[in-house]
Amino acid sequence: MTIRVLLADDQALVRAAFAMLLESSQDMTVVGQAGTGREAVELARKERADLVVMDIRMPDLDGIEATRLIAADEDLAGVKVLVLTTYDTDENIVEALRAGASGFLVKDTRPAELLEAIRTVAGGEALLSPGPTSRLIARFLRSPAAAPPETGPECLTDREREVLTLVACGLNNTEIGEALGLSPLTAKTHVSRIMGKLGARDRAQLVIVAYESGLVSPGA
Length: 220
Description:
This protein has 220 residues and is of the alpha/beta class. The protein has two domains: 3-125, 3-Layer(aba) Sandwich (Rossmann fold); 140-212, Arc Repressor Mutant, subunit A, CATH 1.10.10. Helices cover 50% and strands 13% of the residues. The chain has helices at 12-23, 37-47, 63-72, 90-99, 111-122, 132-141, 158-168, 173-180, 184-198, 203-212, and strands spanning 3-8, 28-34, 51-55, 80-85, 103-106. It has a five-stranded parallel sheet, sandwiched between helices. α3 (63-72) links the parallel β3 and β4 (80-85). α8 (173-180) crosses α9 (184-198). The longest helix is centred in the C-terminal third of the chain and has 15 residues, at 184-198. The radius of gyration is 17 Å and the shape is globular.
């Protein structure tokens, strides 16, 4: 299966470099390039990309608002957004996840990591690595400005809360299974049920619920 990718970045040179990298991979094709957030939304509707690689800082409409529009469009259901950013925009990373992005990368990531990230997000997983990145997210989600989630972990079973905690720590289904003595398929089933109960679109939203509800604490 070929992953149809839309590139959104206000720097033409960056777009060209990413396009060359993606086209060198047999399982990816670039279906469009946008220089503004508004162009990204329009091309997403026109080209029906599987995934949008979205910069945050763009003219006309920034990447966060563009992500929000794509995530809210029923005609674009299933289109994933992978945000590219830098560590000097920490709060924007969190806002992008709240807007509907399924993950993010820093722009100095290695080419092979970018390709694998695209495959991961296009396959329905959230790209939320553990370590400093997760703590960075947690700091902003637990700030006084954060709104409490409408539905929290109290509706989950004890096992589901355990699984949600591990999702928030950046573990994939295989790692969750190893930690809890479950098969990867069982772990995946738990994650799907949790998403259904919490009304979450993907694993990125599960991480937000885990931090905003206090199930996971910053630095834990």
